Recover the amino acids of this structure.
């Protein structure tokens, strides 16, 4: 599902909308002149691009056009196993030296250094500093070794079995059990149904070493490889490095053909109705598979078709979104698009929805109905113009920031070109020609798009749902009847009158009473006539981005215990009603072609807003702020729709072992807290929820704008900021009061605690080790606590994963807070096998104890410092980092200037200071929670 959502996002956000007056439809798509693409004599393809965002960094990527689909029957899971082995030791970096070296230059294992294996490819990620020739050379040595010089000794293979089996264990559960049943129907008669990348447990446990070696020799070969280099580099020098490191390797003499596996067509409609006692949600997938294989986009005409597809998809999903926003939503979310299935070469017209478990057939009918409605009547002119405006505004946003694009985005683009032959014409070319093609596309062309996709064969319906008493399982007969909908009775889509403004009440501007500048960080603060403050920082990190946040102390801690229980789960649904007399659909339509979003929230200690916009659309963001302060709608019907969507999502969460564990564990720790109301609402909690009280409390929390500070970071203009601040913020009501964050006095249970929770049929456990309590907050100790978490994570990976082969992932995190009271919190967490839970818990605590007794190794402290230094250099030129700095300074009452010395503070931290916080805070009571199967 994540991959499907990602594909849809790519389609909507990166539509290749191009055409030219001087190009014919049959002309080839040009290749981006900023990218150096070449092929070595041995067939290896390379891509090189200079890009200075971020500075002094390069993204290296090794792409292998081979994945699990190429495994033999006795190799199932070994494509993925091979990925693991590349991190375990190579010719130049034996055993754990590879990870150790990369950590020493600031590259974190799992966060920066990573890889993935899918059906058709295996991909390795290596971002490294580019300001040091030695580090660059080492980087090329590493990807060369991954490609050709992995150490596949029996000892290392056997050692890694445990880690891979732990990853296999992580995937067990309801989703896996149901997927195993529907994949054979979805990928009918195809190799894809039999080659899930994680493989088979019995093979992972017992394969002989030669099977892995054989896979490596067969498929890790130059003519199936691509090396991608994007970053702050010299292109010619990188091309020479690629030749130096890869040109000498040869392909096998009797190489195996790299087959392309098809997904056969079928006359039947396959229906898979699966349920499981541990399933958390109910979902529908409806696929109309294409008859042929995926068409490669080569010509201008092909890309014009992509633009038509993007318009179609945008309009259809706008309609589904309208239904989702209705008082009686048919699903929590629903969307339709045309794109890849699990197979690289097979596409399908696909509809998805998360639904009410009791209305499976009704929801399926809605998806079918909307497809058929479009097929019969098409879209109208208003929808068409809004879709064009939306797509062009996003393309313009991308174009304006073309010189601020992160290197990683270009790396993905190169990878898609290599693996899928996706066009690479360049952002500027795409945008200029996109402006020319949109006027040439007619509504009739878009309306005809669906005609070839809705069919009565080659289709699959998958429904997955919980299995529980009282829930009737739908039948295949009901499903077939639902998709055989008679379109004769359908009526065309009706367009409502569009809104003309986001505000319906007149705005009386206030004034600026004080203007202060902070030259150290380049920030300006306006104090307004109503007492509100507006702080903004102009940056050039992005040309077309402005972030905004607003904060005021108060929050739900000011509510009584009874009030809190009545409004806790209602607060998230208040914005469903819309503002200024406009519902969510009215607002969405008005905002077509505009990029601005603002969301209010109420936390325990604050109330505020978060949002983003562009310089062009900044005024709309200000108007949203004003409307949410002064004119939030009250609409019980909209709130009922919100409750229904939330129930679809949360009703069966407790059936998931991992969520059940969290609920039981934290309920136990909060047994002395009368405000504790659980993690998600059930029917009983919804019954006690009071929408009117939540609405009134919202109005109360946002009645005093003078208690707020508003922050803006990005490409702002001084005069514009001042004008909008006077008009839309200084005009807000205020009463002169200043609130502070309230400490309710309630704490988690203290003592030496161990809580074991039994849930689930799979052999899966989860361990949480916690240290927490009150503490006087100091910035120095807070930094040391964070550093302790990072350093301990390094040791836990070494011990629990590499030495004991007992976990796939493990982490430690430490923090300190000042608001609403001084506190510390330190967590260690990992999933594992039930038989190892106690042993690995002891091992994790033993690693912590070593730091408490002896302090951390200086080597590990330096690894932490290097990683932080590399991150700081990147983040200091990002709007989000500056925004976080402003809001953190507000919360802690500290100076925002501290951001300028943040890196120096990290460099100055000592092993002794890290040991001191460990001794001071982590030698007291500890809390251990363990999930065990039933």
């Amino acid at each position: 599902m994540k991959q499907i959502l990602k594909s849809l996002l790519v389609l909507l956000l990166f539509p290749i909308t191009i055409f030219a007056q001087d190009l014919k439809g049959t002309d080839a798509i040009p290749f981006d002149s900023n990218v150096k693409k070449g092929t070595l004599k041995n067939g290896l393809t390379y891509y090189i691009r200079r890009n200075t965002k971020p500075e002094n960094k390069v993204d290296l990527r090794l792409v292998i056009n081979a994945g699990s689909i190429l495994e033999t029957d006795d190799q199932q899971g070994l494509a993925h196993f091979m990925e693991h082995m590349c991190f375990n030791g190579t010719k130049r970096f034996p055993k754990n030296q590879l990870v150790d070296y990369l950590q020493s230059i600031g590259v974190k294992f799992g966060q920066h250094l990573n890889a993935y294996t899918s059906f058709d490819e295996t991909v390795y990620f290596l971002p490294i500093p580019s300001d040091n020739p030695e580090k660059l050379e080492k980087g090329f040595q590493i990807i060369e070794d991954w490609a050709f010089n992995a150490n596949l000794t029996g000892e290392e293979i056997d050692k890694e079995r445990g880690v891979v089996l732990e990853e296999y264990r992580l995937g067990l559960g309801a989703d896996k059990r149901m997927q195993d049943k529907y994949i054979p129907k979805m990928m009918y008669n195809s190799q894809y149904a039999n080659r899930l990348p994680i493989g088979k447990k019995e093979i992972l446990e017992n394969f002989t070493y030669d099977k892995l070696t054989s896979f490596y020799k067969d498929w890790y070969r130059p003519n199936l490889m691509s090396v991608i280099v994007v970053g702050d580099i010299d292109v010619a020098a990188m091309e020479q490095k690629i030749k130096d490191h890869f040109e000498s390797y040869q392909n096998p003499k009797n190489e195996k053909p790299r087959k392309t596996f098809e997904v056969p067509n079928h006359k039947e409609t396959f229906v898979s109705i699966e349920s499981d006692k541990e399933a958390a949600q109910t979902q529908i997938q409806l696929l109309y598979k294409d008859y042929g294989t995926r068409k490669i986009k080569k010509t201008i005409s092909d890309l014009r078709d992509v633009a038509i597809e993007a318009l179609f998809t945008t309009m259809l999903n706008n309609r589904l979104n309208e239904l989702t926003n209705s008082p009686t939503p048919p699903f929590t979310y629903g969307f339709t698009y045309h794109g890849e299935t699990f197979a690289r070469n097979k596409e399908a017209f696909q509809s998805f929805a998360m639904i009410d478990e009791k209305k499976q057939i009704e929801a399926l009918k809605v998806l079918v109905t909307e497809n058929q409605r479009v097929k019969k009547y098409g879209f109208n002119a208003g929808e068409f113009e809004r879709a064009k405006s939306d797509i062009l505004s996003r393309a313009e946003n991308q174009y304006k920031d073309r010189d601020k694009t992160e290197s990683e985005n270009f790396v993905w683009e190169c990878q898609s070109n290599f693996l899928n032959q996706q066009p690479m014409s360049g952002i500027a070319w795409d945008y200029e020609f996109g402006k020319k093609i949109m006027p040439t596309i007619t509504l009739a062309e878009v309306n005809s798009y669906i005609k070839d996709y809705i069919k009565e064969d080659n289709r699959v319906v998958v429904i997955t749902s919980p299995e529980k008493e009282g829930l009737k399982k739908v039948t295949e007969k009901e499903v077939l009847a639902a998709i055989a909908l008679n379109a004769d009775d359908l009526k065309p889509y009706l367009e409502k009158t569009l809104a003309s403004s986001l505000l319906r009440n007149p705005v009386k501007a206030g004034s600026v009473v004080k203007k202060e500048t902070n030259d150290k960080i380049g920030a300006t603060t306006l104090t307004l006539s109503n007492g509100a403050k507006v702080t903004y920082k102009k940056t050039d990190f992005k040309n077309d981005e402005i972030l905004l946040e607003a904060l005021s102390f108060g929050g739900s801690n000011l509510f009584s215990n009874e009030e809190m229980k009545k409004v806790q789960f209602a607060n998230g649904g208040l914005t469903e009603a819309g503002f200024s007399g406009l519902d969510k659909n009215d607002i969405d339509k008005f905002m077509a072609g505009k990029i601005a979003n603002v969301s209010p929230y109420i936390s325990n200690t604050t109330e505020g807003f978060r949002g983003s916009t562009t310089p062009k659309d900044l005024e709309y963001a200000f108007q949203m702020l004003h409307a949410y302060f002064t004119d939030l709608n009250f609409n019980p019907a909209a709130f009922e729709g919100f409750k229904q969507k939330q129930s679809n999502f949360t009703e069966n969460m407790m059936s998931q072992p991992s969520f059940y564990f969290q609920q039981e564990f934290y309920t136990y720790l909060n047994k002395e807290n009368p405000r504790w109301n659980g993690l998600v609402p059930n029917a009983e909690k919804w019954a006690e929820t009071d929408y009117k009280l939540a609405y009134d409390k919202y109005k109360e929390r946002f009645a005093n704008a003078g208690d707020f500070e508003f922050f803006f970071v990005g490409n702002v203009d001084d005069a514009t900021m001042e004008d909008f601040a006077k008009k839309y913020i200084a005009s807000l009501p205020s009463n002169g009061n200043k609130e502070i964050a309230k400490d309710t006095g309630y704490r988690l249970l203290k003592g030496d605690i161990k809580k074991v929770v039994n849930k689930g049929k799979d052999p899966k456990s989860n361990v949480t080790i916690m240290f927490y309590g009150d503490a006087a907050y100091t910035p120095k100790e807070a930094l040391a606590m964070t550093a302790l978490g990072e350093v301990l994570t390094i040791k836990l990976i070494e011990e629990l994963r590499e030495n004991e082969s007992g976990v796939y992932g493990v982490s430690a995190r430490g923090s300190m807070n000042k608001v609403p009271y001084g506190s510390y919190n330190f967590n260690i967490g990992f999933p594992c096998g039930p038989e190892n839970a106690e042993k690995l818990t002891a091992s994790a605590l033993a690693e912590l104890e070593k730091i408490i007794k002896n302090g951390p190794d200086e080597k590990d402290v330096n690894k932490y410092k290097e990683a932080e230094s590399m991150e700081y250099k990147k983040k200091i030129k990002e709007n989000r980092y500056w925004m976080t700095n402003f809001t953190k300074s507000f919360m802690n009452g500290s100076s925002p200037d501290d951001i300028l010395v943040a890196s120096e503070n990290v460099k100055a931290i000592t092993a002794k200071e890290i040991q001191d916080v460990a001794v001071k805070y982590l030698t007291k009571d500890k809390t251990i929670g363990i999930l065990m199967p039933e």
About this structure: The first strand starts at residue 35 and ends at 39.
